[in-house]
Design goal:
alpha/beta; Spore Coat Polysaccharide Biosynthesis Protein SpsA, Chain A; UDP N-Acetylglucosamine Acyltransferase, domain 1; 2 domains; 16-stranded parallel sheet; nine-stranded parallel sheet; 9 helices; magnesium; magnesium ion binding
Amino acid sequence: MKSQLPKVLHPVAGQPMVSCVLQAARRAGVQQAVVVYGHGGELVPQSLQATFSDLSFARQEELNGTAKAVEAALPALSADCREVLVLCGDTPLLDGQTLQDFIDVHRCSAHQVSILSAVIDEPASYGRILRDPEGQVTGIVEAKDATAQQLAIKEVNSGIYLVQRDFLQWALPRIGCDNAQGEYYLPDIVGLAVEHDKGVGAVACADYTTTMGVNSRQELAVASQVLFRRKCHELMAQGVTIIDPERTCIEYNVQVGTDTTIYPNVYLERGTEVGHNCLIRQGCTLIASRLGDNCILKDGSYLEEASVGNSVSVGPYAHLRPGSQLDEHVKIGNFVEIKKSTIGAHSKVSHLTYIGDAQVGRDVNIGCGTITCNYDGFNKYRTVLEDGVFVGSDTQLVAPVRVGQGAMVGAGTTVTEDVPADSLVLSRVRQKVIGGWAARFRHQQNEKS
């Protein structure tokens, strides 16, 4: 990955890839999870504990093979654990149903070891499943140790095993490191099981992509695309219209209501909630935001940690920053920025305006080019516009300031003091007309030239 971040923490479709694996395990009914991390991987437990409060962790002191990684985890297992499911933290496409089916097959067999395998046309660096003429599993050979004939095998080891605990504890100390890498390979338990007639089975998954490992940025991008596509198809099955699923990015924990339509190049992330019957046009981004029912987001709008009520129109090219709250039937127009402000019901901020650290009441109209001057270089101050206020274009509201209910602010005004209710405030210079001045000026300029 060419990164200082541990590989399993690289995000795929909005979450660390190891989180995808843990969620699949939980959906398959796994009761206890132990995450093994290596030297320098302390970020792994630090990152996961916030999301998975009941995880156990084991540190592999020496990175000398997968068998030693599993061996490090055994002491953390509960005493009543009888089966050990071994998963790889870099397989984010794994799903709970695939694991559940694998577990069910193992439990219906007499095998001590079951392997989740996959059939791939171009197996590349995956270990190959070896079978005898009767089709029984006889071992696994790593690609680096395989002969040319073995490399032609298309059934591969996914790295996922289900092993009876007693056999696993017996087998792990007996694994050696006589191989090209000088490492202790977990797949060697298969040979031990065969040698001691313990029973080994390989279960081929229906879709090999579910077991795909991620070892590069390119593969990370492919995995993200698959997960985004899965999420889009899940939402479409629930009654959401997505115009182009191949160009729509919706993270795993996003919720979208029925009869909502989503245009291409939309990104919904970090648990965003979208209501029913909304329209989200192309190029919009919603981060940890909430959108009510019957809302319209026009092209290029960006919402972060914002809350939007029902029947609100936003954009095009509007920016709702963290702490923005829009009540029902609000209109936010093009090139408007809202920051840490509440906009009351039926109010309008139609274009080219900045509203920051403000409380705006109901039925307020804010004209084009209005600015709340909320920062003096040291502190932020509040602006309050009470219900029914009308603000003319090109107005500056110098906070802290309050404009009373029903007051009107004339265009071009700089408001520096509180305005009483139902008043008109003006601060611009009175207009002066000098007849014929322009003609005389042009005449003087022409004579000079």
